[in-house]
Amino acid sequence: MFFKKFLIFFIAIQMLFTPIAYGDSSLSKHRLGSGDTIDIRVFNESKLSVKTTLTDTGTISFPLLGELKISGMTVGELEDFLVDQLKGEDKYLINPKVTVSISKYRTIFVTGEVNKPGSYTYIPGLTVRKAISLAGGFTRRASMKKIYRNNDGDHRDRQNKVSLNDLINAGDTITVEESFF
After folding, report:
1. Which domains does the chain have, with CATH numbers?
2. Residue 10 burial by Cβ neighbours in a 10 Å radius (0-12, 13-18, 19+)
3. What one-character DSSP code corresponds to residue 25?
4. Residues contacting residue 147 through CB under 8 Å, at least 6 positions apart
5. Which stretch of DSSP H or E encloses residue 119?
6. pLDDT at 154
7. What pLDDT is attached to residue 110?
8. How many whole angstroms separate alpha carbon 46 and alpha carbon 43?
9. Which of 73, 97, 145, 177 has a CB 3.0–4.6 Å from the CB of 77, allowing a cystine?
10. Alpha-carbon distance 107 to 30, whole Å?
11. Measuring CA to CA, which residue among 16, 23, 62 is closest to residue 41?
């Protein structure tokens, strides 16, 4: 009996002090795009730390490195890219520590048969249902089955049919069609 209690106690202590290894699922999958505002911090290098918004071409201006095309990168990819650039051929820094965070996401757009069509602030985890709620809900003529999403960056103007519980991304446009009845 004593051994069993000791074993349970030992396992509990091990679980408490064992670091949790997160896989790629814990990393941001958000792809940076025009209109996102990011904070870049370089440890112990305040002159290299900037807050900037991606331009319409998906670029930023960064001290020492100039204009950089970063559209389509995740936060983690951008951190790795900046570390490589800062310790690259010109060796600006020996062992740079870079962190990037998103301080403001680009907006989403909700159009069609909603009470208040327009642009709205994106929040990670936003679903179609929540986006429509932000836009004042459905009008009386709205079709709850004809809801479409245009992904930001898809220049083919292709609409994908979505359901109310589907997740959306920053920059997406949600269109609610009219019902026939």
Report:
1. 28-104 (3.30.1950.10), 108-178 (3.10.560.10)
2. exposed
3. G
4. 128, 132, 161, 162, 163, 164, 174, 175, 176, 177
5. strand 118-120
6. 63
7. 96
8. 7
9. 73
10. 13
11. 62
